[in-house]
Design brief:
Chain lengths: 354, 611
């Protein structure tokens, strides 16, 4: 058991080091299955319509295959697919309206199991020490019932629930710790919670800018994208990007000037920080001290940005269009040239690379 | 609660024994009063399909069912008894007006009526009027209008009608109607209750979870003929419904929706020289609560109170030429969880004219204009003509401009509502013919409808959705409504049906709107022989798109559903009837909304008592 655990830590270490590129093919002796050499687009579908789907695009970017989960398993993925995470051979999809997590083989898409208890309005997940941590809003109208649910990734059994403040959204893991952005759910919040994965307790709470909508850990630094309060809140605030040293807790804040500026989609790839602001892509070096003055390029093919990812030398953007038909997926190079575009399922919200 | 009500009905049944001696007497049609007289007088050049209460009795009490099986209107139903919205002649859910005793009752919040929150058994007469009617009926009368009417009988009689039905999924349906009157006063009372566990099985294992509902409706009509000149009439309805929303998976969050609505209308009619004036005051109260999570007591709500004052003056220039002005003031005070408190006032003036020429040509003209601070109101008009060429054949023609005003949600939804919205605008025309040969009757209508300034909610930025006047839709199609009846000795046969062909396309993309079938047909058959009666009701709905890019991979399949009814009457006046029903006889597996299955074959039995 101990040896197993050590081996797993070693594997995890490799995985985490590589996690930003998710390029963990090196771990596997060439996986078998029809979906090994490409990426997935997760399509949320319509709330209440049970029409979430998974699309697959081969890395040669020639075609998109929509609805692949259904094709393999003959059943729907569920309702309102929010996020996906890979671990070893498996993929875990969080289905917000179904209150389920669908578990399947990432290479063959064959269904392995479903978690359908102890989830209430689940959002995002992270994995640490063989455990799946899932953020839950609980009842959206109740501020005090939010939690992070913990499951065993092998048996899919529920272990515990860690109560947190309102609106836990994105979650990342690093060195036995989990960092949870409290975006605020139906309301607004401005914190990041640090959870100890050994004791499953909250270690500390870090206050950041309003509405932390994205976070990443890279080389001892926790990066948090706070979007700021939107205009409809009645007290609009500018966004800010926080760079927090997870060992010393030193904070660098990159502040936006204007209260109408609401950055989102922070991604770190090859020592560059990427984010979007008003339909354009910006980037700066992780060691830079100021925000870039100009954008890299405009996502002019996208009307309603719903998913964004930077992976190796490409930028992947998803457009939900009008939510009543398949969305649009556009692949750009880092200079903003369109490399490929596809029609996905309804409301594509994320990209996941096999 | 629902059981208690059911037993009250049983108790009522017991009380009725005493009244059994009462004879039901002749009916004098002239003494029947339906308050929505405009429906008869100002539908020139249009088709009005009347659905009798014997027909509604052959259907489930929720209004969706009667209309789905007997009219060309298509329904999108989120599972049996769940949210149900119509597409009438290819239009959207808020483009069908629902009119209760002449008063438009579409929701102030979303501009539509959920047809599974209406118990059809509360009305004496349901009529369906195809095509635009905004000049008379106001907002939403674009695809057509549905009329729910109470009938007052001014004649010496007293009648009771009790209908009790019990069926699969613990479904209870109880309807009671009481009418009494003299030549000077009339009372009509209808009480209806419907409940169901609604836990039917899905075709692929699984069953309908959290789908239970119950509702009670009370409808009262009271009329007094004070003297030759003055009459007073009062109509009132109370509807109380509780409905859970069904789940696709057991792990989903359980929710429910409660409705409490009341409608009240007071009319004073005064006839002098060649004038008839009708003064109306109506008070509508619409209240809903949505429980987004049944494990907590929290809910969101909407509540709107509307006061309508209406003055309607008809001047008879001659027996054949009538002029009519209608002045209406509608004041609404509404509030809701995401709406704040908002009041709005709309004043409208309409002028109508009807002329019946001696050569069999009838025509009508109508104009309406609204004044309100809320939106820029278009000038509405309506023209219609009917020419009877012989007793077998007549032609109908009409054209109109109609609208659907922005709703409370559109205007005031917190941080999303758009105060600058325009009403949706429809310009349409139709041409039809009515052919009558012996016992056969057919109405054929072709129409064209251009709807502009369609209000559509779309995401703008930061995930916020806002409504905009955005789309244009072109609709054209054809409708047929037919019936044939025959009596030979003790056999009586009545066959009726409808068919609709509908093209409804987005003017920008040319794509057919989602959830609008190209084809829909209904067919019914009633057969009576001595004490037996049998009937069939059926509906066919063609394939529908569920994706606005018309990706056919996700289309819902066409389906046909047939219901069968068999009854046997007892008593020397056939006052008692016992019967049974098989719904979905062929056990069709179907859904009218993606991933929302409807029930397979199911059964019920009933007792029908008329005194």
């Amino acid at each position: 058991m101990k040896i197993n655990k050590l081996a797993l830590f070693a594997l995890l270490g490799v995985f985490i080091l590589n996690s930003c590129s998710n390029d963990d093919d090196a771990l596997e002796p060439l996986p078998e299955g029809d979906y090994t050499d490409g990426f997935f687009v997760l399509n949320e579908g319509n709330f209440g319509a049970n029409n979430s789907t998974l699309s697959y695009v081969n890395y040669n970017l020639s075609t998109i295959n929509n609805d692949v989960f259904n094709q393999v398993n003959g059943t729907s993925l569920g309702d309102t697919a929010q996020s996906l995470i890979f671990e070893d051979d498996l993929a875990y999809v969080v289905l917000n309206a179904s209150n389920t997590i669908e578990v399947f083989n990432r290479y063959t898409l064959e269904k392995v199991g479903t978690i359908d208890e102890n989830l209430a309005n689940p959002r995002y997940s992270a994995i640490e020490n063989d455990r799946l941590y899932v953020t839950n809003w609980g009842d959206g109208t109740i501020a005090t019932d939010d939690y992070v649910a913990v499951f065993d990734i092998n048996t899919l059994e529920f272990i515990t629930a860690i109560s947190v403040e309102e609106g836990p959204e994105k979650i990342v893991s690093e060195d036995d710790k989990l960092y949870v952005a409290l975006q605020g759910g139906f309301s607004f919040n401005n914190k990041v919670v640090v959870i100890d994965a050994n004791s499953n307790t909250v270690l500390s709470t870090i206050t950041v800018g309003d509405v932390p909508s994205a976070l990443e850990v890279e080389d001892d630094f926790l990066w948090v994208n706070s979007s700021g309060l939107p205009s409809y809140s009645g007290s609009e605030t500018a966004g800010a990007i926080y760079k927090i040293n997870i060992n010393t807790n030193d904070v660098v804040v990159y502040e936006f000037d204007d209260s109408s500026q609401h950055p989102s989609n922070l991604e770190i790839e090859d020592d560059m920080v990427y984010y979007t602001l008003g339909g354009s892509v910006y980037k700066f070096n992780t060691s830079a001290t100021e925000l870039p003055a100009t954008s890299q390029f405009e996502l002019s093919e996208i009307t309603s940005l719903y998913g964004f990812e930077v992976e190796d030398n490409y930028i992947y953007a998803a457009d939900a269009l009008n939510y009543t038909e398949g969305g649009k997926v556009v692949v750009y190079d880092l200079n903003g040239e369109v490399i490929a575009d596809f029609t996905s399922g309804i409301a594509p919200n994320g990209f996941y690379f096999n | 609660m629902k059981k208690t009500l059911f037993y009250i009905f049983l108790a009522l049944l017991a009380c009725l024994q005493d009244l059994y001696a009462q004879d039901s007497l002749l009916t004098n049609l002239d003494s029947v009063y339906v308050t929505d007289v405009k429906l008869k007088n100002y539908s020139t050049g249009r088709t009005v399909l009347q659905l009798s209460d014997t027909l509604t009795q052959k259907n489930r009490p929720l209004l969706t069912n009667t209309l789905n099986f007997n009219t060309p209107i298509y329904f999108k139903e989120n599972g049996l008894g769940m949210v149900s919205s119509p597409s009438f002649r290819g239009t959207t859910a808020s483009q069908t007006a629902v009119v209760w005793n002449g008063i438009n009752i579409n929701s102030q919040f979303n501009g539509q009526l959920d047809f599974n929150t209406v118990n059809a058994a509360a009305y004496d007469e349901i009529a369906v009027r195809g095509g635009g009617g905004s000049v008379v009926y106001g907002t939403g009368a674009i695809g057509g209008s549905i009329h729910l009417n109470t009938q007052l009988d001014f004649k010496n009689r007293q009648s009771h009608h009790l209908f009790l039905q019990y069926g699969s999924f613990d479904t209870r349906d109880a309807r009671y109607q009481f009418k009494m009157g003299t030549e000077t006063y009339s009372l009509s009372l209808a009480l209806a209750h419907n409940s169901s566990a609604n836990d039917y099985a899905y075709p692929n294992d699984g069953k309908n979870l959290n789908g239970e509902f119950e509702n009670t409706a009370l409808n009262v009509g009271l009329g007094f003929k004070l003297n030759a000149k003055h009459s007073l009439r009062f109509f009132s309805e109370l509807y109380d419904g509780e409905r859970h929303f069904s789940l696709i998976r057991a792990s989903e969050t359980r929710t429910k929706y409660d409705d409490l609505n009341s409608k009240n209308l007071l009319e004073w009619e005064y006839k002098f020289s060649d004038f008839t004036s009708v003064t109306r005051v109506a008070y509508l109260d619409e209240h809903y609560k949505y429980f987004g999570n049944l494990s907590s007591a929290n809910y969101s709500f909407g509540s709107a109170k509307t006061i309508i004052g209406k003055y309607d003056l008809t001047y008879r220039l001659s027996r054949r030429l009538h002029l009519n002005t209608v002045l209406t003031n509608t004041y609404t005070s509404g509030e809701g969880s995401s709406l704040g408190i908002n009041n709005r006032n709309i004043f409208s003036a309409a002028v109508l004219m009807k002329h019946q020429l001696k050569n069999g040509l009838d025509y009508e003209l109508g104009f309406r204009k609204e004044i309100t601070g809320n939106y820029e109101s278009p000038f509405l008009f309506s023209v219609g003509a009917t020419k009877a060429f012989s007793e077998y054949f007549s032609l109908n023609l009409s054209a109109s401009r109609n609208f659907r005003i922005p709703t409370y949600n559109d205007l005031y939804w917190s941080s999303a509502g758009n105060p600058d919205l325009l009403p949706e605008n429809s310009l349409q025309g139709q041409l039809g013919t009515k052919i009558t040969i012996a016992n056969f009757n057919i109405d054929l209508t072709g129409y064209y409808n251009s709807v502009t300034e369609m209000i559509r909610w779309l995401p703008v930025s930061d995930g916020v959705w806002r409504p905009r006047n955005e789309e244009e839709v072109r609709i054209y199609g054809a409708e047929a409504i037919a019936n044939w009846s025959q009596k030979i000795n003790a056999h009586s046969l009545n066959i009726y049906g409808t068919y609709a062909y509908t093209i409804s396309e987005n003017a920008q993309t040319g794509n057919q709107l989602i959830y609008v079938p190209f084809h829909k047909a209904t067919a019914g058959l009633d057969y009576d022989f001595k004490r037996f009666n049998a009937s069939l009701q059926s509906v066919y709905v063609g394939e529908v798109f569920t994706r606005s890019d018309n990706n056919s991979r996700y289309n819902l399949d066409a389906y046909a559903v047939v219901n069968f009814n068999l009854g046997y009457s007892f008593g020397n006046k056939k006052a008692f009837e016992l019967g049974g029903r098989v719904n979905n006889v062929f056990d069709a597996e179907y859904q009218s909304v993606e991933n929302r299955w409807m029930p397979g074959r199911n059964f019920s039995m009933y007792l029908n008592l008329k005194l």
